């Protein structure tokens, strides 16, 4: 299991980056960087309250937690109403970091971000610090898909290895919907992520994933996605399996190399173990990517 330390949001991320550069992990190999492999799960868990989800999350969430044991990193979205169930069934080798600003003001009926990062990386080789930033824009209170009731945003992590690798991780969930205000909100949210990464992760390796709510079959959504991809010089890690299995393509995994890490995709697709007798454990596919880090 890796060592996880909470990271203050916004300005605190800059302070963390300075510390990471000045005081790297003590076990860094000064001659040559070792290579590592790790598996990443990206999964929208459909974690709405039972009355809204329309099924039995109390049965699904323990199973989801158990299945994370096969992954060194699990980036979850919509972990809203059943987080304690998730925590109670996590393997002892894994721990979770929730995307939230504890000091922020939220309305009485609002939920958090639904973002959770679960990790089982070896503490001898890896250290991860995380922060959460809420989006400045949302679309819909009592109209459209009511995204403003969630404090959507992005989790930003800095993952460092004892061999000197450094990778920036982004776990996010954008606003849903196909209206012009919905799409404008997603454009604003993508811009907020891009500005943060251009400032904090210039020339750094990045893994960015989540439910982007950008439909690959929509020309307008696809244009937004490709503009964002090109702005950050990202490459899509997982392609094809969602559409082949009949899922709408809304979930993505992107990556790029950096000065302190080269990333290679060894395998990717949908993990079909995420099901029970009633069917899939969510209304989204469980995407996985196996990365080699050089």
Description:
- The structure is a single chain.
- The protein has 294 residues and is an alpha+beta fold.
- The protein has a single domain, classed as Endonuclease/exonuclease/phosphatase (Deoxyribonuclease I, Chain A, 4-Layer Sandwich).
- Helix content is 24%, strand content 29%.
- The chain contains 7 helices and 15 strands.
- The protein has a 7-stranded mixed beta sheet with strand order 1-6-7-8-9-11-10, with helices on one face. A 6-stranded mixed beta sheet has the order 4-5-3-2-15-12, with no helix packed on it. The protein has a two-stranded antiparallel ribbon with strand order 13-14.
- A hairpin with a 2-residue loop joins strand 13 and strand 14.
- Helix 5 packs parallel to helix 6.
- The longest helix has 21 residues.
- The two termini are 20 Å apart.
Give the topology.
Blueprint: E1 3-6, H1 11-22, E2 36-44, H2 50-53, H3 57-67, E3 73-77, H4 83-88, E4 95-98, E5 116-119, E6 126-134, E7 153-161, E8 166-173, H5 180-200, E9 205-211, H6 219-232, E10 235-236, H7 241-244, E11 251-256, E12 263-270, E13 275-276, E14 279-280, E15 287-293
Parallel strand pairs: 1-6, 2-3, 8-9
Antiparallel strand pairs: 2-15, 3-5, 4-5, 6-7, 7-8, 9-11, 10-11, 12-15, 13-14
Helix pairs in contact: 5-6
- What's the structural domain tally? 1
Total helices: the number is 7
| CATH architectural name | 4-Layer Sandwich
Find the structural class using helix and strand composition.
alpha+beta
The level 1 CATH classification is Alpha Beta
């Amino acid at each position: 299991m890796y060592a996880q330390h909470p990271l203050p949001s916004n300005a605190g991320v800059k302070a963390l980056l300075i510390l990471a550069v000045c005081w790297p992990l003590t076990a860094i190999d000064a001659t040559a960087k070792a290579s590592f492999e790790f598996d990443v799960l990206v999964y929208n868990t459909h974690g709405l309250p039972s009355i809204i989800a329309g099924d039995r999350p109390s049965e699904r969430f323990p199973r989801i937690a158990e299945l994370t044991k096969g992954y060194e990193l699990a980036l979850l979205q919509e972990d809203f109403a059943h987080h304690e169930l998730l925590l109670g069934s996590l393997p002892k080798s894994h721990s979770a970091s929730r995307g939230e600003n504890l000091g922020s003001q939220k309305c009485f009926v609002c939920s958090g971000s639904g973002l959770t990062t679960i990790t089982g990386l070896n503490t001898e080789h890896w250290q991860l610090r995380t922060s959460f930033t809420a989006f400045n824009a949302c679309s819909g209170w009592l109209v459209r898909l009511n995204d403003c009731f969630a404090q959507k945003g992005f989790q930003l992590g800095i993952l460092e290895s004892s061999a000197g690798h450094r990778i920036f991780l982004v776990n996010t969930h954008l606003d849903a919907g196909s209206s012009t205000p919905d799409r404008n909100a997603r454009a604003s949210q993508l811009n907020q992520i891009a500005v943060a990464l251009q400032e904090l992760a210039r020339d750094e390796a990045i893994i960015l994933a989540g439910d982007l709510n950008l439909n690959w079959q929509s020309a307008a959504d696809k244009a937004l996605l490709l503009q964002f991809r090109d702005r950050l010089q990202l490459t899509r890690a997982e392609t094809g399996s969602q559409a082949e299995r009949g899922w709408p393509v809304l979930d993505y995994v992107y990556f790029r190399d950096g000065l302190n890490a080269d990333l290679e995709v060894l395998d990717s697709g949908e993990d079909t173990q995420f099901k029970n007798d009633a069917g899939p454990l969510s209304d989204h596919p469980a995407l996985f990517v196996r990365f080699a880090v050089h």
